[in-house]
Amino acid sequence: MADLDIQIKGGTIVDGTRVPRFRGDLWIKDGKIAQIGGRAPGFAKKVIDADGLIVAPGFVDLHTHYDAQIRWDPWCTISGWHGVTSVVLGNCGFGFAPVKPDFRERSMLTMTRTEAIPYESMKAGMQWDWETIPQYLDSLDRAPKGVNCIQYMPTASLMTYVMGLDAAKTRPATDAEREQMRRLLNEGMDAGLCGFSIQRLGKHSAQADFDGSPMVTDTMCDEDILNLARVLADRDEGFIEITQATGHIKEDLAFVEKLAATARRPILFQAITASTRNPDIHRKSLHWLHKARANGLPIFGQAGTVRSGFAFTLEHWNLYDMAPAWRDMLTGTREEKLRKMRDPAIREAVKSERSMRALDKNAPGIGGRLVKLLVQWVDNKPELEKYVGKSLGQIAQEEGRHPVDVMIDLSLATDLKAEFLQALPQFNAEYNAEIINSSMYTFPGVSDGGAHTKFFTGGAFTTDFLRWMVRDEQRVSLEEAHYRLSALPAHAAGFRDRGILREGAWADVVVYDLKHLDIEPDWIGEVAHDLPGGEWRRVQHAVGYRSIIVNGEETFSEGRCTGATPGKLLRHGHA
Length: 575
Fold this sequence. Notes:
single chain; TIM Barrel; 2 domains; nine-stranded mixed beta sheet; six-stranded parallel beta sheet; globular
């Protein structure tokens, strides 16, 4: 009888294919699943007792920003704590390759605002040893990894590399530049890229660049995008991730359809989200998705099912950037922000009806309405403690002031350290379940793992989805949940032999206790000083995972990291 590496004994197996759960053992050898069910084919070096536990495929997270963090945190936490065994890097068109040596600094500065990744952490944690995409992929391949990853071409980086930053932001590419971009994308695809990505949010992007201007792809013209889509069509491989503004819904969605028809490859569109009261919001998106699918367009909908809250200071907050006056006030150094906050003209601009209307319109995705934000912390200043626990609207009413003045004055009095907390919102379980159950083409997520680290913890969405939708609300079956968390996203993104449990497939496995699955601390997490460069972030720990296995090796056992780094760069989707 053959020696085996791991036996997962007596668990309830949910294999990711929607097959009804069943009780059985699972054996692992040489990184792959050797056998499922039946009698033991040999003796295992390690036995994991899974009696009463769920045994399922590791989760596949298609929307992360761990491009920098994976260089110092091989397990891409917090996602790695919550059962994610495979991630996609380079989302929204943002990343660190290709990049000319003299643009490395500016590349990091860009990510400090648009994805709110601490600059000091990037500076201390990234060892630049690449310029081109092939060099970057080789570097990523060499780096220790506790999760598997695939990599998009970050379109903003590509355009900047070919055109220069100013030109990329202000004009379409020339024919010669488009030819060079096609050549570089082909070169990257040859080296193992999985496609390309773009964020297209317009000149008032909610995720602006370091200097407050739109990101390169935000104002990218249609033809420059379609130019790259034709590369994928010619190769008949790869996929495209697009974050598309829908301010002009008919025209914006028509472009996504044109992109799908041109590339003839999977499009990951985001995001499909549910409101608390109006079912038309998500049903219109689903109707469009189903109509596109009926027309033969390979579009998938990434569902915004994340229930993480926001706790933020005006020192780091960037999600009011869609309102130009707020963006102008909150761009720059700490000293520049403080100076602008004291300027009466700027105060009036951020309080204007236009600015407040922009914040209210986007409230669901930016922490709710400003007037409902709660004062959470005032830098231990006794004279301000009376405000803690009150909303900005309540304070404004009691003192006869504008809520924005309350927010800014508290920020000034605490050197921008005053912290504001999103009031606990209501989430509509019925509508969120409908996004999943009524469509063949949607999966939960948009975690943004690795981004917005000081005020958001979306990387815990996998654990939350299982406890919320499956266990507590019982609106999504366990079999359906694991199909949507693993098999379907793996299929959509071209992961090979991932996302399901079957003999011969790579052994990416989670073993967990559904009854006790939880997140600690809940809602907004806690502060952890665990980033390079002396920086901090918000984290939420996972409760209830007995074991997390990547390529046949345990990366976490009983919630503790084993130190193993068995993850792989999956060029073209496979090891």
